[in-house]
Each structure stands twice: as C-alpha cells, then as structure tokens.
Write a structure and sequence with these properties.
Residues 51-397 form the DUF4220 domain. The protein has 602 residues and is mainly α. It has helices spanning 6-34, 44-70, 84-100, 111-114, 117-137, 143-169, 171-176, 186-197, 221-224, 228-236, 238-245, 252-263, 267-286, 289-292, 295-316, 326-351, 354-362, 366-375, 395-401, 408-414, 417-432, 446-463, 470-476, 481-486, 494-497, 500-517, 541-565, 575-601. Helix 1 (6-34) crosses helix 2 and helix 26 (500-517) runs antiparallel to helix 27 (541-565).
Length: 602
C-alpha cells in the first residue's frame, strides 16, 4: 500500500525546485523589510518572524542549489543539446548565490552568528565552485549563459561582502579594531612635574574636537536635519561607546569629556544621543554597515544595480524566452525584479541613514542632505529609533495570577514551562482586570523613565563634581545606598549589601508593596506632556506624588524584567534559578497572608 500517491510524488518532483526558489525569495523579502525593524519594534511576532526567516534562508537556498546540481545529469536531450528547461533552471543558481549573500538589513541575528564567519567562508568557496560547475555544464552559445555569468558576479560580490562583514563584527576583530587608550606624552609629563616642583600651579584643561558646520548657507543645522547636533555629539563619543561594548576601560579623558558634554544637554537630547549611538553599534554588529558606508561599498551597490538592470532588460528581449516553460519564465522575471527592487531599497536606506547624514554634515554637503530629506526622508525622518517602550515584570502580579501547569515536568524538559506561565498569567490578569500593570507588557511611558534616570545621574554629578578613580568605583557600588542615606534609613542598608540580583528582587517587592499601599490611580494623575521635551508635568501635589510613584514602579518592574528575561545584561550569575526560588516563596507567602486575612474576616 502506497502512503503517498504517485501523482502527488510526480507533482512534487516537478514543483519542488520552483517552490524552494520562491520560498528563498520570500525569506529575503522578509529579512529586507523586517530585518532592521526589530531594533525599534519590541513585539515577539517580529522576533519570531525574523528568526524563522534568518534560519531558513540559507537552508532553503542551499537545498534548491543542490536540487539544481542533482538535475544536471539529465541536462542534455536525445540530440545531445541542452534541454531548454534545464538551461533556464541553471540560471537560478547564481540568483540563489545572491540570496546566500544576504540582505543589507541583517547579517547576524545574534552576536554568536558573527563568529561563524569561517564557516561562511568555506560555504562561499563551495557554493562558488558549485555555481560555476552548474553554469559550465549548462553552457550554450545563447545569451542566457552570458546573463548567468553576470548574475554570478553579483552573487559572488554579495556573498563575499557578507563573509567580510561577519569577520569584522566577530568579537576578536571588533576588539582589535578599537585603538588603545591614548597615554600622556612622557616628556610633557616630566615638564609638568618640574613646573610643579618649582611652585607653579598647573590646571588641567579639556580639549574638545568640534565639528565645523556648513557656514556657506544661512540655515541652522537643525533646519537641514532635525537631529544634526545630536548626530555630531554621538559620533564624537562613538569610539568611547565601542570600548564599552568591547568590555574595555575608558580613559579618564574620555570620561571627563562625556560628562562635560552631557551636562550641556537636556534629558531628551541626552537620550537621543544615546539612541543614535546604540543605532550605530547595532548596525556595526548586525547589518552590513561595515561594508556599506565606504567608497567600495557604495561602488559595489551601484555595480549590482547596473548589472541586474541589464540582465532584466536583456532577459525581457530574449528570443529564446518563448522556448522555455511559461511558469519558469514568470518565476525568473519575479526573481530579477525583486532582486532589483531590493537593491534600490538598500540604496535608499543607505541615503536616509544616520551615517550618511553625519557624513554630509561633516563634509559640508548640506544642500544634498536637504534634497534627500525632501525626496526620500520625509516619512523616514519621523521613524522612531527604538520601540519607545520598556518591558515590565511584576512579581506580585505573577504570584497572584499564576496557574498550576499540568504535566509541569514534561513542559520543563521541553523548555516551554515559563512561556506557558507567562501566557496564562497575562490571560488571567486581563480577564480579572487587575489594577497592576500587565505582565511583561511594554509600557508607553519611556520618556518619564528617561527623565527620572537623567535627573538622578545629573544630581549625582552635581553633588560629586570631582568623580574620578576610586570615588567613581565607590559610587557604582552604592546601588540604593544614596537613597537610604538621604532619608536616614541605615537600618535597611542590608538590602543593598546583598548580591545584585537579590537586591533587585528585594527592592522590587518593596516598591510594589509601597505603590499599592498608598495607591494613586493613573486616571487621577493630571500631568499633560510638555510639547518640547515630551515630559509629563503634574498640575497639583497629588498628581506629582502619583507621577513619581508611577515612574518608580515602572523602573522597578523594568529592572525585574531585565533580571528575568535578559539576565545576561546584568552583572549576575544564577539569576534565573534564584528568581524561580524567590517566586515560589513569594507565592506561598502571599497565599498564607490572604488565607489569614480571610480567616480573620470569617
């Protein structure tokens, strides 16, 4: 008895290559459209979609290329000539090589993917040889063979560029690319010491590198680009930010310069500078930015657009096109049109990027920047650089809404126990309409949190203007110690002497209890947003207290969110295990408290 009917098998044999090629094209479209959006969209749907497309893209392209290579045994007909069907199918091989080169918007889904550059180097060699073998085997004197070679050149450029970008973004290469800290000149230091011994008073001065604006026009830079000042500041501090991402120390000079710069900025400007810096780092590590923003990168894109355009035009005018399958011809046209569209889209993204805007401002080409803003960047200029939301995690909400999962041991082995707990807790809280904020739902109050953080850091700098060396290290270890000293609660100092993850849990639980003990409903807080800064400004004392409590609660839940969902972002070890234990204990304690209250009422 046959499980699969022969007619189905024949249909799959005939259509499998076409389906795989279209799937490969679909994966490329998803990565082009959504690859870079994940840095400013926090939804799980986009992460899953991009993750799936990223993992499947290479596998599908390799499988399709393997099928093409396998079918070359029947490439010749009875007369010893190349079968027109296989000739057109062989034309798809260099297009699949182009797909393996990836898109400009994403080259790595995670940092670990950058470490696979050696594997991709080997893959480049193997696929290049395989594509050449397919091309030579299906070679005829027709124009289609020449077009195949032109597409092979484009695919080879793209795949080679991907390998180079992965290599540059790998941990060792990234760390090696960062210059050493500039040390003070020994001769100058000797002269300074001699002057001090002679009784002279020496004063340290900070030297800033200032970008010279384009003075040939009467327009201020912010009229040319709304974030021009922030772009210049972000690029000035970019090398220092790279050092932080590489786990290097920063020099005292860099630290003093950054403090001086941020003292002159408002909270909104400061976080905009940080947004731009993080965007640059993201592009360096996860996209083809290392290759794009150079003369060679721009030249390769122009060459790719030129070649694909020529191939498309010549293919449309091929006389032999009518000898091939109509479906295969349509698929080929779709492949070429979409490839050309993706190249134009990538070039447009290059023109409207922050890196291009900075280069044009720096090189005093603001007229060209104005043209870009008017024609291409009208909508893109309003795009947010990140999700403008912060993840939230409430321990009390979890304990009160948690459901016992059936077959918990099996779910734990499969690694989906926590995911199901989150889903059921969210569903229960929504059904019961709890007053607490939704579990693990981003809150659209990021400006309030930014304002609170900026004020806190600014107060620290103003209170301790001479922060350096051990003084700065001591400040890092204070955690909530400054708050306890301010309100004279040294009896609670034990809470900041615990391990960092335990301190987060203790302070989060205390914040939750205090927040609901003197609860002020968010609906009763009258604090309209400032039109310029975006910060909410309370109108009366109750609204001011409620707003401050709300900000503190958001920040507390965000810290717990990092502890639970992204522990690698915190300097801790066994955070997830300790959190699981703490959650179970908290749940038991809350149930006992509620049971005692019910018994008292009865």
């Amino acid at each position: 008895m046959e499980v699969i009917p022969p007619s189905w098998m024949n249909m799959w044999t005939e259509w499998q290559l076409r389906v795989l090629v279209l799937f490969s094209l679909s994966a490329q479209i998803i990565l082009v459209v959504l690859g870079k959006r994940r840095k400013r969209v926090s939804g799980s749907w986009i992460r899953f979609t991009v993750w799936s497309a990223y993992l499947l893209a290479d596998s599908i392209a390799l499988m399709a290329a393997g099928i093409i290579s396998n079918e070359l045994g029947s490439v010749y007909d009875a007369n010893g000539l190349v079968d027109p069907k296989h000739e057109l199918v062989a034309f798809w091989a260099p297009i699949l090589l182009l797909h393996l080169g990836g898109t400009d918007t994403i080259t790595a889904y995670s940092l670990e993917d950058n470490e696979l550059w050696k594997r991709h180097s080997l893959g480049l060699v193997i696929q290049a040889i395989s594509t050449l073998y397919i091309w030579l085997t299906a070679w005829t004197s027709s124009s289609l063979s020449l077009l195949s070679f032109l597409m092979f050149i484009v695919g080879l450029m793209k795949y080679g560029e991907r390998v180079r970008v992965l290599f540059l973004a790998s941990e060792k290469t990234f760390r090696d690319s960062i210059p050493d800290i500039r040390t003070d000149n020994s001769k100058i230091m000797e002269k300074c010491k001699l002057k001090q011994w002679e009784g002279h008073h020496l004063t340290k001065h900070l030297v800033f590198e200032v970008e010279v604006p384009d003075l040939s026009t009467n327009k201020p830079l912010n009229d040319v680009h709304p974030d021009a000042d922030e772009l210049l500041e972000a690029n000035r501090l970019l090398e220092m930010v790279k050092r932080l991402f590489a786990d290097f120390i920063i020099s005292s000079q860099d630290r003093d310069v950054s403090v001086k710069i941020f003292q002159e900025l408002s909270g909104l400007q400061a976080f905009k500078v940080i947004d731009i810096e993080l965007g640059f780092i993201y592009d360096f590590l996860y996209t083809k930015a290392n290759a794009i923003y150079s003369r060679l990168g721009i030249a390769l894109r122009i060459i790719a657009i030129f070649i694909i355009s020529i191939v498309l035009v010549l293919f449309l005018n091929l006389k032999e096109r009518h000898h091939h399958s109509r479906i295969d011809v349509i698929i080929t046209l779709v492949l070429l049109v979409v490839a050309l569209f993706m190249e134009f889209y990538a070039f447009r993204e290059l023109l409207i990027s922050d890196q291009t805007a900075y280069w044009l401002i720096k090189n005093k080409k603001t007229t060209f920047l104005e043209v870009i803003n008017r024609t291409l960047r009208s909508k893109a200029i309003k795009k947010k650089r990140w999700s403008n939301s912060i993840g939230q995690f409430s321990l009390l909400s979890l304990a009160l809404s948690k459901k016992t999962l059936p077959r918990y041991g099996i779910l734990q082995i499969l690694g989906i126990d926590e995911m199901l707990e989150i889903h059921l807790a969210k569903k229960k809280m929504k059904k019961e309409n709890l007053e607490s904020q939704p579990y693990d739902i981003p809150q659209e109050h990021s400006i309030d949190i930014q304002y609170l953080i900026f004020l806190g850091i600014r107060d620290i700098v103003r209170e301790s203007p001479e922060l350096s060396g051990t003084k700065l290290e001591d400040l890092y270890g204070l955690r909530g110690g400054r708050t306890l000293e301010k309100f004279q609660r040294r009896d609670l100092s034990w809470s900041v002497e615990l391990e960092f993850d335990q301190s987060i849990l203790i302070w989060h639980l205390a914040t939750e209890i205090c927040y609901f003990k003197d609860f002020i409903s968010p609906n009763s807080i009258h604090a309209p947003a400032n039109k310029k800064s975006g910060e909410r400004e309370p109108k009366e004392e109750r609204s001011e207290k409620g707003l401050l409590r709300q900000r503190c609660n958001y920040l507390s839940r965000y810290m717990l969110y990092l502890l639970v969902k992204h522990p690698n972002m915190l300097p801790i070890g066994m955070a997830r295990i300790k959190f699981r234990t703490f959650t179970l204990r908290s749940e038991t304690s809350l149930k006992n408290i509620l049971a005692n209250q019910l018994n008292t009422l009865n």
